[in-house]
Amino acid sequence: MEDGLNAVMDRVDSKRIWLALLPKHTSHTFFALDLCAWIVCNMKNHLKITNEKDWPVLFGVTIWRMWYWHNQFVHTHKTSSLSNIIMDVKNRSEELIVVYKSFDGQRTPKTEQWIY
To answer: 76-97 in b/e burial notation, b at 16+ Cβ within 10 A?
Structure first.
């Protein structure tokens, strides 16, 4: 678990990415939590990083992409600039938000029934 935390929260490169995405007033609180609390608080936006409901999406996409870039570097030695990384995170987050909002309220839950 320590390696995962290091890859998405504590590494210098990761910290630069988070600092580029976070409002200035939230960075101290953001980095002060243990891993479990950090994930839960951000996925539920308990830290009130932004007033928007979209922070959990941006947070999740950022972790996903950080893990991707970490693996790219480990396996292929490819790197990317901070500006390209931030642009990638924001674009992918926006795509997911648009798709999610297009389905919002349209999905009807299936009734549970036993299959015989």
So the answer is: eeeeeeeeebbebbeebbeeeb
Residues 6+ apart with CB under 8 A from 83: none
Instruction: Kindly give, in sequence order, each residue whose CB lies less than 8 Å from that of residue 9, ignoring residues fewer than 6 positions away.
Output: 15, 18, 31, 35, 38
Sign for the CA dihedral angle at 108, 111, 112, 116 comes to: negative
Span 65-79, pLDDT tens digits: 998 988 888 899 888
Cα 17 to Cα 86, 97, 113: the distances in Å are 7, 20, 46
CB 22 within 8 A of CB 49: yes
Nearest 5°: the CA angle 48, 54, 59 is 75
pLDDT digits (tens, 9 = 90+) for 37-47: 889 988 988 87
